[in-house]
Structure formats: structure tokens, C-alpha cells
Design brief:
Elements lengths: L4 E14 L9 E14 L3 E5 L6 H9 L6 E6 L2 E2 L7 H5 L2 E4 L13 H11 L6 H14 L16 H13 L5 E5 L7 H18 L2 E6 L2 H7 L2 E6 L2 E7 H6 L4 H8 L2 H4 L43 E3 L5 E3 L6
Parallel strand pairs: 3-8, 3-9, 6-7, 7-8
Antiparallel strand pairs: 1-2, 1-4, 4-5, 9-10, 10-12, 11-12
Helix pairs in contact: 3-4, 3-5, 4-5, 5-6
The structure holds iron/sulfur cluster (SF4).
Length: about 325
């Protein structure tokens, strides 16, 4: 993995307006992503982990351009996407996505060959039919799919095979970055490890950079180099994987790890067990958004917003207990 930064996400916000209860009531918003910043190093896997509704998938979809950010900048190889206007597509094709539900993301009326070839036609690469056919067969082989199945339809494949089709399609136009949005969550455990191993093999072979989004701390631990923990639209901790799993600093990360004893065993007191639900992102708590569930909260937590500070060796934590 090089130390070169390939992608910078700067203070990205993504708010969705919710319908007003009264005609002249002021608008209210779901703050799905609320000021997220990080740099992605070429060749690394950055895991993004958090409970359902924390904004991790919305963040992935905003980075790839499926959603427009409400605020903030995305800089790819030194180029700010917001400066490009309509020319964004030439650069955005370097960033592709693999979705959670491979069946829902594949057109049931298209054959596997057509599904994998579709991005080649849209982006006008491999212009002739024979070039495209060769490329599709190559992609099927590197993703572990039998090329004789090229004329089959998605319903004729298992869940794991369908995710391999999704990966082949994402790879078709030689992206540099792949956003893996819960790519194994819908699969059986034995198939999960096959897909994770395939992603790791492809990363080495094709020098890919991954953003790996998951709610599963064990899967994220297995594949990631660094891990960002999200809570209610914000990153609360970001660090190298080993530092984060062996010495988590944020009370939320500690509580999450406590929920997987095989990794977090022996390190924490019972009072770190996470209780209650994630608050509504329409009306998030004031101050530190984690304070209603935090076992270490002090009075200042209910009115002061913590900053993401570097504790050293690029271990970032957002908690006022670490400020001054
Ligand atoms: Fe807990 Fe306060 Fe730190 Fe938030 S700022 S994580 S509430 S101690």
C-alpha cells in the first residue's frame, strides 16, 4: 500500500428534507451524513462501520455520485469533483460500487454477459462486440465464474455467484476505487469468506483501493487496513485497524467491540455495554450526539460538540474527554 492520497472527503454533509407536518412549519432534515472528512490512501482498504442508520451507506452513495452532497468536497487525485460540472463522469468512472443485495442490483431480464458488458457500452470502452465479449469472459474468469454461463440469467445463480457477477460488473471499466456497500451481509457465512477472499485477491492483482462499508465488526476487521467508526452521521473514531481493535478510545467503539467477545474480550467493564437505540437523525441530541447512550458522559457532553482530534499516529477520536 502506498502512502499517496487517492481520495479526500472534506466535511461532507448529506441532508434529506422530511415532509412538513404543518403547511408553514419550518423545514426539517434527516442529517444522514453530517460533516465527514477522511483521506483514502492508494491501495488500502478503509472499513466504515456502524449500526444501521448511522449514514455509512449514504456516505458511500454520495462519494460515488449517486447522491449529491448537501455540502462539502470530494477530491479525487487532486481534482475537486464540484469543479468539473458535466465532465465528472470521466473521473467518476474510476470509482465503482458493489451493492449489498446482488439480486436486486442485477437486471433480471439481462444475461450475465450483457450485465457485465453494460458499463463498457455506457462508458464507450471496448467498442466492438468481439472486444466486449473478450473482456466479459476475462472478467468472469478472474471473478471465479464459469464462462459457459455467459448466456444465463441472474435467477439461475446462487447468492455468492450473483455477488461475483456484481463484482465483475464493477471491475469492467478498470476502476481505481471500489466502494463495497455491505457486499457480504446478504450471504451465508461460508460464502462470505469466499467473497472476502476474492476481493482481497483482486485488490492485490489489480491494485485496487476499497472503501468497505459494513455493520459487521468481524468482517471489517478481516479485510480492512484502517477503520472509521460512524455514529449518527459522524465519524467518532478513525485509526489503523490494530490500534482501533486492540485499544479503542471512543466509548461507542468500546461498546461496539464489547458486543463481539472473541475480539473485545477482557478489556472493558460491564458499564460499557451499549443500551438503547440510535436517536432519530431528524432531531439529533445536542452536544455530543452519543451522550444519551454514553456511560462516560459528563455534564458538558450535552452542550459541547466534540472535535475529531489526533491522539497520535493518526488515531482520531471525537470525544471531549480527550480535549485539553
Ligand atoms: Fe461520551 Fe461525552 Fe465523549 Fe460523547 S463526548 S463520547 S458523551 S464522554
Amino acid at each position: 500500500m502506498s502512502q499517496r492520497t487517492i481520495l479526500e472527503v472534506i466535511d461532507i454533509k448529506k441532508y434529506f428534507e422530511v415532509s412538513r407536518k404543518k403547511l408553514f412549519a419550518p423545514p426539517s432534515y434527516v442529517k444522514a451524513v453530517d460533516g465527514v472528512s477522511f483521506s483514502l490512501r492508494e491501495g488500502e482498504t478503509l472499513g466504515i462501520v456502524g449500526e444501521s442508520g448511522c449514514g455509512k451507506s449514504t456516505l458511500g452513495r454520495t462519494i460515488i455520485g449517486l447522491l449529491n452532497p448537501t455540502e462539502g468536497r470530494i477530491i479525487y487525485q487532486g481534482i475537486d469533483f464540484s469543479d468539473l460540472g458535466k465532465n465528472q463522469n470521466d473521473f467518476r468512472r474510476d470509482i465503482q460500487i458493489i451493492f449489498q443485495d446482488p439480486y436486486a442490483s442485477l437486471n433480471p431480464r439481462m444475461t450475465v454477459g450483457d450485465i457485465i458488458a453494460e458499463p463498457l457500452i455506457i462508458h464507450k470502452v471496448y467498442n466492438t462486440k468481439i472486444e466486449r465479449l473478450k473482456r466479459v469472459i476475462e472478467l468472469m474468469e478472474i471473478c471465479g465464474l464459469n464462462k459457459n454461463y455467459i448466456h444465463r440469467y441472474p435467477h439461475e445463480f446462487s447468492g455468492g455467484q450473483r455477488q461475483r457477477i456484481g463484482i465483475a460488473r464493477a471491475l469492467s471499466i478498470n476502476p481505481k476505487i471500489i466502494i463495497c456497500d455491505e457486499p457480504v451481509s446478504a450471504l451465508d457465512v461460508s460464502i462470505q469468506s469466499q467473497i472476502i477472499n476474492l476481493l482481497k485477491k483482486l485488490q492485490r492483482k489489480l491494485e485496487l483501493t476499497y472503501i468497505f462499508i459494513s455493520h459487521d465488526l468481524s468482517v471489517v476487521h478481516h479485510i480492512s487496513d484502517r477503520v472509521a467508526v460512524m455514529y449518527l452521521g459522524k465519524i467518532v473514531e478513525l485509526s489503523d485497524k490494530n490500534a482501533l481493535y486492540n485499544s479503542p478510545q471512543h466509548p461507542y467503539t468500546q461498546a461496539l467491540l464489547k458486543s463481539i467477545p472473541e475480539i473485545g474480550s477482557g478489556g472493558f467493564d460491564d458499564d460499557t455495554i451499549l443500551e438503547g437505540d440510535v436517536p432519530s437523525p431528524v432531531d439529533p441530541p445536542r452536544g455530543c450526539v452519543f451522550h444519551p447512550r454514553c456511560s462516560k458522559a459528563i455534564p458538558a457532553c450535552s452542550h459541547r460538540i466534540p472535535k475529531l482530534i489526533n491522539l497520535g499516529e493518526n488515531h482520531y477520536v471525537s470525544c471531549i474527554l480527550f480535549e485539553d
